């Protein structure tokens, strides 16, 4: 590992990337989206609007399974919109669920609801003619999709079961406040999608600025010991600190992030830096200070170097920390002790502090769809019809039916069973995750969601062969190096390189505080499974008591530990 030096300028001068022009000239995110919406000659958005609609929570996509076929028929790609809702902390009521279920069934090409690993949901395949009704439906049920994509603070993650303790409840309330506080202030969303009249006041963006942030920005709040939100994937994280069961404050961590570019050594994953502790009632001041520093210091000349992790590595953590203190007027105290021990969801029944029941359901890939033999999406809708509590979406793409009254417990369990939930699942499957990838993701290089189920079956077979089927390895497959499935925080990570080919990473840990190292590059699934068979057999035979797979691969020298990803990741 080299010795670190931080001597970069606070602000990078140079030619701004085109995304900056688009934002600055957008009239606070309006662009000409409204006009484009009326153009029925194309199913897509044109020019700058293609990018601007992302600030409103939408991505233009086309089905990549039929792209070539349409090209051969000299047809345009069939454009459709993916819409991502804003749901800080992941809570949605039964009534809201029934409305989104109906919309997915009636107005989307795929008919599915996709739970994401940032505790919200996406509709895939909304045709242009249905976009407005999507936003209006969300508005009617008290939801929106503002700021779930592009260069703003994204959906705020938070430990997913507020009914677990009073601290969880407080933290959930703060997640919503942070989301609201950092939201774009522009009225563009209401004007374009909800037909609100433009008011004669001038727009302003006191926190985000008229050019918004240099890049996407992610926030999480975690109540230890479960790191289910994967805090090190976030630009800004708050770790709840308690005394005698009461929330006193938070440890602030800044600069986590996972995306890389294959072969581009200027890109790297990064574990967030620990900056210090502060009292709980100052969380909005701290959040605003961090975001505003990244707004002012983040690199606007190179989007591959624009995230907070790169800003910190350029200016140095000490200078960044001092600036947080200066802007917020709060002196950060030394980090308070905390311990992370797990990352998974607690499946099955648990009782909340309100004495109501919670049922955590495993949803493979977070994809709720009615399959011929298993009506998963209908199942959740049937539960929503009788359930008087809420649903909590988890950062592992699962769903908690929360706040079930005693008299409904059996009924809800029966509905869940009838629709294919609550089958016996191995710990391995419970701890495996994939990103969306094909057919909707335009950036996908290899399959992820669609190969996960069979890939996990193969790994389960290996685990059974070596008599360790009750154990698990955190396994994640991501279709390209953007890393949406957080493979760079897993014990076994596959990162798509080309159709059927992946880079294999091993050596992360169970709690998500260590980046794994590339073990083999550009190999086939068959090859990966052969390698895993060999490594898992060694782990089964030679591990120390309770030693996890990732720790074993480090201790036995199968891969070198990544102590500082910036130097060690590509070494
Ligand atoms: Fe992601 C882009 C899906 C979590 C890093 N991500 C995309 C897009 C929108 C593709 C695009 O830009 O056109 C994908 C849409 C696919 C589709 O068809 O739905 C996509 N990302 C997802 C989701 C749905 C994966 C999932 O299976 O759950 C997650 C949605 C989260 C949400 O609700 O907001 C999702 N993406 C992540 C995460 C994990 C996290 O946030 O905890 C990461 C890595 C963490 C990080 O940011 O470092 C992640 N996504 C990216 C990146 C790389 C960003 C970067 O730093 O360079 C991109 C590409 C980009 O932004 O240019 C991207
Ligand atoms: Fe798409 Fe790549 Fe993200 Fe997977 S990791 S959803 S392929 S951008």
Automatic annotation (TrEMBL):
InterPro entries membership: CysI, NiRdtase/SiRdtase_haem-b_fer, Nit/Sulf_reduc_fer-like_dom_sf, NO2/SO3_Rdtase_4Fe4S_dom, NO2/SO3_Rdtase_4Fe4S_prot, NO2/SO3_Rdtase_4Fe4S_sf, NO2/SO3_Rdtase_FeS/sirohaem_BS
EC number: 1.8.1.2
Superkingdom, natural source: Bacteria
Binding site for [4Fe-4S] cluster: 435, 441, 480, 484
Single GO term (MF): metal ion binding
Similarity comment text for this entry: Belongs to the nitrite and sulfite reductase 4Fe-4S domain family.
Assembly mode: Alpha(8)-beta(8). The alpha component is a flavoprotein, the beta component is a hemoprotein.
Note on how the cofactor is bound: Binds 1 [4Fe-4S] cluster per subunit.
Cofactor(s) essential for the protein: [4Fe-4S] cluster; siroheme
Keywords recorded for this protein, A-Z: 4Fe-4S, Amino-acid biosynthesis, Cysteine biosynthesis, Heme, Iron, Iron-sulfur, Metal-binding, NADP, Oxidoreductase
Record's protein name: Sulfite reductase [NADPH] hemoprotein beta-component
PANTHER family: SULFITE REDUCTASE [NADPH] SUBUNIT BETA (PTHR11493:SF47), SULFITE REDUCTASE [NADPH] SUBUNIT BETA-RELATED (PTHR11493)
Signal peptide: none
Sequence ranges assigned to domain Nitrite/Sulfite reductase ferredoxin-like in this UniProt record: 81-140, 356-414
Protein residues bound to siroheme: 484
Any single biological process term in GO: sulfate assimilation
């Amino acid at each position: 590992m080299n010795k670190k030096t931080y001597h970069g300028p606070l602000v990078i001068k140079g030619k701004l990337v085109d995304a900056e022009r688009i934002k600055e000239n957008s009239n606070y995110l309006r662009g000409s989206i409204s006009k484009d919406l009326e153009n029925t000659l194309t199913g897509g958005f044109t020019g700058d609007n293609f990018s601007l609609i992302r600030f409103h929570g939408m991505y233009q996509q086309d089905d990549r399974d039929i792209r070539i076929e349409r090209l051969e028929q000299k047809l345009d790609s069939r454009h459709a919109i993916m819409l991502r809702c804003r749901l800080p902390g992941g809570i949605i009521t039964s009534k809201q669920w029934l409305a989104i279920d109906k919309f997915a069934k009636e107005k989307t090409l795929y008919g599915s609801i996709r739970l994401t690993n940032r505790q919200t949901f996406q509709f895939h395949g909304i045709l242009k003619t249905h976009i407005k009704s999507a936003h209006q439906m969300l508005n009617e049920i008290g939801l929106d999709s503002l700021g779930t994509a592009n260069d703003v603070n994204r959906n705020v993650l938070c430990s997913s079961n507020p009914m677990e303790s009073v601290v969880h409840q407080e933290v959930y309330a703060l997640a919503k406040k942070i989301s609201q506080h950092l939201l774009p202030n522009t009225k563009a969303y209401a004007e374009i999608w909800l037909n609100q009249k433009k008011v004669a006041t001038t727009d302003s963006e006191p926190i985000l600025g008229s050019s918004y942030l240099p890049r996407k920005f992610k926030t999480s709040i975690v109540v230890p010991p479960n790191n289910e939100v994967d805090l090190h994937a976030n630009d800004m994280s708050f770790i709840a600190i308690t005394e005698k069961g009461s929330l006193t404050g938070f440890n602030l961590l800044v600069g986590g992030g996972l995306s890389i570019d294959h072969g581009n050594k200027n890109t790297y994953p990064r574990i967030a830096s620990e900056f210090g502790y502060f009292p709980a009632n100052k969380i909005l001041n701290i959040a605003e200070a961090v975001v505003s520093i990244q707004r002012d210091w983040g690199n606007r000349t190179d989007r591959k170097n624009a995230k907070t992790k790169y800003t910190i590595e350029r200016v140095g953590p000490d200078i960044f920390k001092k600036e947080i203190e200066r802007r917020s007027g709060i002196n950060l105290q030394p980090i308070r002790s905390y311990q992370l021990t797990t990352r998974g969801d607690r499946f099955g029944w648990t009782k909340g502090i309100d004495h109501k029941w919670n049922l955590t359901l495993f949803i493979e890939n977070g994809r709720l769809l009615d399959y011929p033999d298993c009506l998963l999406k209908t199942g959740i809708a049937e539960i929503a019809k009788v359930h008087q509590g809420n649903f909590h979406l988890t950062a592992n793409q699962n769903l908690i039916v929360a706040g079930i009254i005693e008299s409904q417990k059996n009924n809800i369990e029966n509905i869940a069973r009838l629709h294919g939930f609550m089958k016996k699942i191995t710990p391995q499957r419970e701890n495996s995750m994939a990103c969306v990838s094909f057919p909707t993701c335009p950036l996908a290089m290899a399959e992820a969601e669609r190969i996960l189920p069979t890939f996990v079956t193969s790994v389960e077979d290996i685990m059974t062969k070596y008599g360790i089927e009750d154990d698990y390895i955190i396994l994640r497959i991501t279709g390209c190096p953007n890393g949406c499935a957080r493979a760079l925080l897993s014990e076994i990570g596959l990162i798509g390189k080309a159709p059927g080919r992946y880079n294999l990473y091993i050596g992360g840990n169970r709690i998500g505080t260590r980046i794994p190292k590339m073990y083999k590059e550009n190999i086939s699934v068959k090859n990966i499974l052969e390698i895993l068979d060999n490594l898992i057999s060694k782990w089964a035979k030679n591990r120390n008591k309770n030693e996890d797979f990732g720790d074993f691969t480090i201790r036995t020298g199968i891969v070198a530990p990544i102590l500082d990803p910036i130097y060690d990741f590509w070494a």
